[in-house]
Amino acid sequence: SLIILSMNTNHIKVQGRQLSPNDISYIRELIHNNPSWSRRRISEELSKEWNWRNAAGQLKDMACRSMLLKLEKQGYIIQPPRRCIPVNRMMAKKIKSVPHDQSLIEGKLKEIQPIKLLSLRKEKEYEELFSHLLQEYHYKGYKGVVGENMKYVVLDRHNRILSCLLFGSSAWKVESRDKFIGWDIVTREAHLHLITNNMRYLILPWVKIPHLASHILSKVTKQISRDWITSYGHPIYALETFVECDKYKGTCYKASNWICVGRSKGRSRNDRYRKIKTSQKDVYIYPLKKKILKEPSHK
């Protein structure tokens, strides 16, 4: 179900919010009293009224819009007609081809140091190249990413690009991860945004430097939480990733002291409703805090 009934049957839980009958009535009145407003305007005004913001203080109007869609689907409200057909941005987005040097880079790690880890939130000139390299050379391809995310390119001392990394939203529910951390359902829902998933990791195929992959991961663990605070107003407490065990051994993660906490059950990382079947994967975690998220979800 898209809407979860709480212990109090007068309340419903939608998009992470507990809604009372008064909340539903307020939304209905907001729609009824402002017939000229678009769906977007309604979600923006409701977010302002409820002061629904992320840790960086930005209005969560997209989360609000998703909540309204779920409420409408379940028959709680009727929104105004759509003014335009929404475009699937991920499907419509076309990755541009970007010329790039494919000359062999080989030798010892010390010969190309210092390695620079650049966040694309600051170095936006690499955005198109990052997208093209992932789509062209990563076995999963790349169409884009939504939600909180961090993109990195890695350069050597000569400013040659070596690698691309993408971190995004953590998986909704992973039994082995949740057990390792010590999460119950309530604590997981409260803290899930404090974990990020290493969704893509690419060492470019013409780069042949032993131990480079684990060295880059070590740099990421020292930098990513600071970058997340700057961009989104909250830290990262742990990193996770899923390694397809029929294709890879997870060697670079093991060498970087990531912990293999178990194996997935063959469902998609965002499969809340157990409908999407995928290959099994080894689940790796890298805690950035000694006591990772085991404190109560409210203080």
Strand sequence of the main sheet, in spatial order?
Answer: 5-6-7-8-10-12-11
Strand content: 15-25%
Uncertain ranges: 1-8
Order of helices and strands: EEEHHHHEEHEEHHEEHEHEE
Number of strands: 12
Helix tally? 9
| Overall spatial form | globular
Helix/sheet category: alpha+beta
Helix percentage range: 25-40%
- Average pLDDT reading: 87
Q: How far apart lie the N and C ends?
A: 29 Å
Task: Please tell me how large the radius of gyration is.
Answer: 22 Å
Largest beta-sheet characterization: 7 strands, mixed
Comma- or semicolon-separated keywords:
alpha+beta, seven-stranded mixed sheet, disordered N terminus
Task: Write the topology of this structure.
Layout lengths: L3 E2 L6 E3 L2 E3 L1 H13 L5 H12 L10 H13 L15 H4 L12 E2 L9 E4 L7 H11 L12 E6 L5 E9 L5 H7 L3 H7 L3 E9 L3 E2 L3 H21 L5 E7 L6 H5 L3 E5 L17 E7 L12
Parallel strand pairs: 4-9, 8-10
Antiparallel strand pairs: 1-2, 2-3, 5-6, 6-7, 7-8, 10-12, 11-12
Describe the protein's architecture and organization.
The chain is 31% helix and 20% strand. With 299 residues, the protein is α+β, with helices and mostly antiparallel strands. The strands form 3 sheets. The chain has a 7-stranded mixed beta sheet with strand order 5-6-7-8-10-12-11, sandwiched between helices. A hairpin with a 2-residue loop joins strand 2 (12-14) and strand 3. It is globular, with a radius of gyration of 22 Å. Mean pLDDT is 87; it is low at 1-8.
